[in-house]
Specification:
The protein is mostly beta strands. The chain has no helices and 16 strands.
Length: 239
């Protein structure tokens, strides 16, 4: 089994199937401290493996480092949650091999975790009602329409499908540097097929950015257009 997650992921819970050596069917009844049960992981760049100290899990789906818990011996015989220690997933490796073994009548259980630079759990297309963290934009001076302007707290507004502009949930935006500002756009902000964002600040040209979203089941490429209120740009202008 291969699990793929971003480098530095925390709180990862993996569901595994553990089989009985005698029948090759799901082995039920294991707990974190079952006699002989051991677990460990090996990062592909590490010189040695690391033992996982197994722990009880009070509530399924709630992360406990090293947690191990049977899910349902009747509906899902042999299925267990394994809670991966965060240290296994930090930067410095491309993959992690995890094993569980040693309990009576238990077949060894092996699985791998691929560590990626990008989050493949996020849709490739810009989807309707999908939040965007750290959406960035540039503001330039309203005097020369070129020089990045700094030290502002831009107000950000959102228009959905041609409607009136309303305050973005997390307005005002925060400064990054060199005239770049950022804001977290929420699901409510992104609830439309055509989203136009307007950012305003004293001494800066108004910034307009239009995003075209896709239905949640779509995988087509995101399309973005940008316009700025300036007399020197070839984009849509306001003078």
């Amino acid at each position: 089994m291969l699990v793929s997650r971003t480098i530095g992921t925390t709180g990862l819970i993996v569901v595994v199937q553990i089989k009985a050596a005698s029948t090759d069917l799901g082995l039920t009844g294991l707990v974190y401290n079952s006699s002989g049960l051991v677990a460990g992981y090996k990062r592909n760049t590490a010189s040695a493996d690391v033992a996982i100290t197994l722990a009880t899990v009070p509530t399924l789906g709630t992360f406990v480092s090293g947690g191990f818990k049977e899910i349902d011996s009747t509906l899902m015989p042999g299925a267990y949650e394994v809670h991966i220690p965060n240290a296994a997933l930090v930067a410095g490796a491309d993959s992690v091999h995890v094993t569980l073994s040693g309990a009576t009548n238990m077949k060894d259980c092996h699985f791998d975790i691929e560590l990626t630079q990008t989050n493949n759990q996020v849709p490739l297309a810009l989807q309707r009602s999908y939040p965007i963290t750290g959406f960035e934009f540039l503001l330039v001076s309203s005097t020369d329409h070129v020089t990045p302007i700094t030290g502002r707290t831009p107000a950000v507004y959102v228009s959905q499908d041609g409607g009136a502009f309303n305050n973005a949930t997390n307005s005002p935006a925060l400064e990054v540097s060199n005239g770049i500002y950022k804001i977290n756009l929420t699901a409510a902000d992104m609830d439309g097929s055509v989203i136009t964002i307007r950012a305003t600040a004293t001494g800066a040209d108004d910034k307009f950015i239009t995003l075209f979203t896709q239905p949640e089941t779509s995988t087509t490429t995101t399309t973005t257009t940008t316009t700025t209120t300036t007399t020197t740009t070839t984009s849509t202008t306001t003078t």
